[in-house]
Design the sequence.
């Protein structure tokens, strides 16, 4: 039955207080932002922190600074619905607005935050179950157990990243600030993720993701996010493709970045496709198709992801082509 | 009968209460001193409980008891009834028969503590080998009589020579079709509140049939039925799964007896998967053949569906093949297999919805093979009489449904060949299918009472499943009594009221509606008699035939009148009441009775990804008299949207190794959301049916789903040239 376990709740008003609390509590604590992912997981006992450090009272985390002309910083607590409806974001970083708008449902987007969506727990059919269900199979290595039910011989966990904003921010070359009692560091969003279903974030337990920094878009910058899902709304991505590129007037790719969601434990970098595209004309259908093929190649399907492998391979290719076409004016 | 109210689109009387939260669903009924029960369910599909350790749970604050087979009171009787009832597991033995079977209940003073206690129960079970795959048991498939339409029907029926007919046709289709396990998942989960007072039991239950719950509990606990009262005022959806009292109902009453406190027990969403039924998977084979002109030379429909090891439910998918199309040779066969699963049960249009997917897909395939318009093929074998027994239909306006639907939908614009029409890069496809559902009618009773203030109170122990019962029965009574709608109150959902049948099988409007009509008419006649023998009445001495009821008065043809208020005041000021009772009569022997309709669907299919969007649906239905144009429309709307879910989404996925259902909540048990639903247009053609039942109603709850998934599947074929014979139609099947 879905009820929260017992926990202590702290509501610091300053980021430094939150960081200090986390430094004291270590792995016993979790950070609570919008709660749309963490609280249901706690109800299912997938996460059982003794203390929740709530961020909602920290004004600084809602702050926004900069502008499209110079780059923009969004506080980690910026709601997904704010991003979805922000005209400056839609005009300059359209992929981010598209990704935010595709998350879950309007009520969940009103609660869910950008920082929270970036730190979304990885998912797996054997993990996203109630406590009784997981107990009955002796749990899995992601929580309380030893083995991986997806690949029983595997030494690692294959749970899958399902965040919509992470591949976009990777593709946009955005950065995040992580604050801890020791100070703060700023890293590319790309480096926030690790290829492991359990340790999927490089963020240390004492660190709080405080802000997301969007680079100033160049006049020739374009970006897109396409999300394939089972139904029209209220669904995690079967496959998400985020792409950004700088295109010359003749369609030649100056630079591109392409990341995928729903294909592995971290946003997958389609580096080969990107290297292939550099200097080539995206308006050339052969180039576009070959790049799409290359993107599909890294969309490696797993047993714990939705639909059959053969469909995923084929759909990934077509879907990638669609994402690339979206980049064309 | 004047129909000033019947047919009008009055808004639901309970709508405001439901939207504002004022309506109390069964679990929300305030019962003093109630404690909370939370079930512990089995984590394996089959075996035996060796040990169940409840000590940690029992030590927790607020925990009153943890009841398992070890300490549960032995029920003096078997809590099982004849008819549409299910065998339950009420903690009486150590056997585990299916995954998620209730094996213990934790009872505590708060819900949270009960949840916590249930989580602390440790079960050590001896695991036995299970089978949850239909394929593994096909060699043991067997026929069983089918409980449908309130009577037992033969599993097999055949007339003519189907083998010869199949060869005689100019074209033939013989294909296998499949529909998956589906789970009802009404928004309101199952919930029961049980309260004992001595050997009297009061139960608030999320139920479609309070009288069966009453009898079942009385039998199980060995007390007279009159000692049990069951109340269900509001139901948040049911669709069949609340049609029988499952294990948790008995367990709630048992726990309440054992802790000597009222117990509230609700299932979690996850516990909805397994122990409270679902639509069983079906494996169907359909063979149809036709002459070049489309006349069917043979229909054969065979189906296999699973049931549990300990109970029988037959998904009667092949029943409609007996009645739908004219053909000299028709054969239908039902087989079931036993699996280690919870017993499946009635789910909206049981049989007809799963069966129509197969039969109506096969008809579409046959039309394609004959290079014929699918609608023309259906018209070529239009059944003027019931093909099963040659009986005339009590009413049948299917031809008009086809015509009106085709016109409204723009059927003539259907692409002649697959992949020939695109819209913004998507293939456009159009498909159609026939809808048919039996007009069921069961014995029902009602009471009508005229109050001294000239308003009426009418009641029957039926259920409003969200269908509009509170509203439509007041409309019927208002017309019979010559009262404005606002002056009639209809109450329901209490086993102390006149007995009503199960609110299922699309028969509530017909059955209870007829009882309300008869009771109201009896009351009106009684009031007329009271007036004509009353020397102080202006109507004194008139003949009853000269008097009608109108605007709260009895009015004579001469113009003289008497009001209900005056009449009752002179008669002593006490309410006057009459009871009414209806039951099916000989007409059922003389006529075949069904509601009919036609679905038309347009889909857009992404050629690269295989994703399907239902852009448009038109459904035209003829099902007797429409009691309320708004609530009837909502029912058809709901049926058609369900059709989208059935065609594209719904699927309870088993992990066959574990023997457990993996889908656990509404985030992964997919139903259509708003974004999946394009334009939906349900229409109905009113029929005058003098034979079907006194209310002239044939039922609207299930008809809208029958054929809906097939129309979508046929549209998908028209769009892509791919025939998907296994639901749901997911994108991977289309590439």
Sequence:
């Amino acid at each position: 039955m879905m009820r929260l376990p017992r926990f202590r709740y702290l509501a610091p008003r300053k980021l430094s207080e939150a960081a200090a609390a986390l430094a004291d509590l270590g792995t016993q604590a979790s950070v609570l932002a919008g709660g749309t992912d963490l609280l249901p997981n706690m109800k299912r006992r997938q996460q059982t922190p003794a203390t929740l450090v709530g961020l909602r009272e920290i004004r600084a985390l809602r702050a926004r600074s900069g502008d499209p002309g110079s780059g923009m910083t969004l506080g980690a607590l910026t709601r997904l619905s704010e991003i979805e409806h922000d005209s400056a974001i839609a005009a300059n970083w359209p992929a981010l607005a598209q990704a935010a708008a595709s998350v879950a449902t309007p009520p969940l987007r009103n609660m869910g935050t950008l920082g929270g969506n970036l730190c979304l727990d990885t998912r797996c059919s054997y993990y996203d179950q109630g406590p009784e269900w997981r107990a009955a199979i002796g749990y899995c290595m992601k929580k309380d157990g030893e083995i991986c039910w997806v690949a029983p011989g595997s030494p690692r966990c294959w749970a899958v990243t399902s965040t919509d904003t992470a591949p976009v921010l990777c593709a946009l070359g955005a950065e995040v600030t992580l604050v801890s009692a020791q100070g703060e560091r700023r890293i590319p969003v790309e480096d926030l993720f690790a290829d492991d279903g359990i340790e999927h974030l490089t963020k240390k337990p004492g660190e709080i993701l405080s802000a997301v920094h969007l680079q100033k878009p160049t006049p020739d910058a374009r970006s897109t996010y396409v999300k394939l899902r089972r139904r029209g709304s209220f669904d995690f991505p079967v496959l998400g493709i985020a792409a950004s590129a700088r295109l010359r007037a003749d369609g030649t790719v100056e630079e591109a970045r392409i990341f995928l969601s729903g294909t592995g434990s971290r946003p997958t970098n389609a580096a080969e496709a990107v290297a292939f595209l550099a200097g080539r004309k995206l308006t050339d259908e052969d180039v576009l198709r070959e790049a799409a093929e290359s993107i599909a190649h890294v969309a490696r399907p797993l047993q714990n992801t939705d639909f059959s492998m053969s469909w995923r391979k084929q759909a990934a290719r077509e879907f990638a082509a669609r994402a690339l076409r979206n980049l064309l004016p | 009968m004047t129909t000033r109210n019947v047919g009008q689109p009055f808004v639901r009387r309970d709508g405001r209460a439901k939207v504002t939260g004022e309506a109390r669903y069964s679990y929300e009924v305030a019962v003093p001193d109630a404690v909370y029960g939370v079930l512990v369910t089995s984590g394996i599909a089959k075996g035996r409980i060796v040990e169940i350790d409840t000590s940690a749970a029992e030590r927790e604050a607020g925990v009153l008891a943890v009841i398992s087979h070890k300490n549960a009171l032995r029920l003096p009787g078997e809590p099982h009834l004849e008819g549409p009832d299910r065998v339950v597991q009420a903690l009486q033995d150590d056997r585990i028969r299916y995954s998620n079977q209730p094996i213990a209940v934790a009872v505590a003073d708060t819900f949270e503590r009960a949840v916590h206690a249930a989580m602390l129960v440790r079960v050590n079970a001896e695991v036995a080998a299970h089978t949850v795959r239909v394929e593994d048991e096909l060699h043991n498939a067997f026929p069983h009589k089918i409980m449908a339409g309130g009577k037992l029907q033969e599993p097999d029926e055949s007339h003519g020579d189907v083998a010869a007919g199949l060869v005689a046709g100019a074209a033939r289709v013989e294909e296998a079709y499949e529909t998956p396990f589906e789970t009802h998942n009404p928004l309101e989960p199952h919930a029961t509140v049980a309260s004992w007072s001595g050997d009297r039991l009061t139960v608030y239950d999320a139920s479609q049939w309070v009288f069966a719950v009453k009898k079942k509990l009385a039998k199980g606990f060995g007390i007279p039925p009159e000692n049990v009262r069951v109340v269900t005022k509001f139901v948040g959806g049911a669709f069949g799964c609340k049609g029988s009292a499952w294990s948790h109902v008995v367990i709630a009453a048992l726990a309440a007896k054992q802790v000597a406190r009222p117990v509230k027990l609700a299932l979690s969403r996850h516990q909805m998967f397994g122990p409270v039924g679902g639509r069983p998977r079906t494996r169907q084979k359909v063979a149809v053949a036709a002459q070049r002109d489309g006349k069917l030379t043979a229909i054969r429909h065979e189906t296999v569906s699973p049931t549990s090891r300990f109970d029988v439910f037959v998904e009667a998918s092949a029943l409609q093949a007996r009645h739908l199309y004219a053909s000299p040779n028709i054969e239908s066969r039902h087989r079931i297999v036993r699996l280690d699963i919870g017993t499946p049960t009635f789910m909206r249009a049981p049989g007809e919805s799963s069966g129509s997917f197969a039969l109506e897909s096969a008809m579409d395939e046959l039309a394609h093979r004959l290079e014929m318009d699918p609608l023309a093929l259906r018209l070529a074998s239009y059944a003027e009489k019931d093909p099963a027994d040659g009986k005339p239909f009590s009413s049948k306006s299917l031809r008009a449904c086809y015509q009106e639907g085709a016109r409204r939908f723009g059927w003539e614009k259907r692409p002649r060949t697959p992949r020939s029409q695109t819209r913004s890069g998507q293939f456009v496809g159009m498909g159609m299918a026939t809808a048919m559902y039996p007009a069921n009618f069961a014995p029902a009773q009602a009471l009508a009472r005229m109050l001294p203030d000239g308003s009426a109170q009418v009641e029957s122990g039926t259920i409003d499943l969200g269908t509009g019962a509170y509203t439509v029965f007041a409309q019927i009574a208002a017309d019979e009594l010559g009262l404005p709608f606002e002056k009639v109150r209809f109450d329901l959902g209490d086993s102390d009221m006149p007995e009503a049948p199960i609110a299922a099988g699309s028969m509530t409007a017909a059955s209870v509606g007829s009882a309300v009509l008869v009771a109201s008419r009896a009351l009106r006649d009684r009031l007329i008699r009271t007036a004509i023998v009353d020397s102080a009445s202006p109507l004194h001495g008139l003949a009853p035939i000269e008097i009608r009821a109108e605007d709260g008065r009895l009015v004579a043809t001469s113009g003289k009148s008497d009001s209900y208020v005056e009449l009752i005041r002179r008669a002593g000021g006490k309410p006057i009441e009459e009871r009414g009772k209806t039951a099916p009569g000989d007409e059922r022997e003389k006529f075949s009775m069904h509601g009919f309709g036609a679905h038309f669907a347009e889909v857009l299919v992404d050629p690269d990804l295989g994703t399907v969007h239902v852009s448009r649906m038109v459904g035209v239905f003829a099902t007797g008299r429409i009691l309320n144009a708004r609530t009837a429309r909502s029912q058809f709307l709901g049926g058609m949207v369900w059709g989208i879910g059935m065609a594209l989404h719904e699927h309870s996925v088993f992990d066959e190794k574990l023997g457990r259902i993996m889908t656990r909540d509404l985030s992964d048990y997919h139903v259509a959301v708003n974004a999946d639903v394009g334009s939906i247009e349900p229409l109905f053609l009113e029929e005058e049916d003098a034979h079907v039942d006194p209310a002239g109603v044939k039922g609207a709850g299930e008809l809208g789903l029958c054929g809906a998934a097939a129309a979508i599947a046929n549209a998908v074929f028209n769009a892509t040239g791919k025939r998907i014979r296994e639901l749901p139609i997911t994108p991977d099947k289309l590439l």
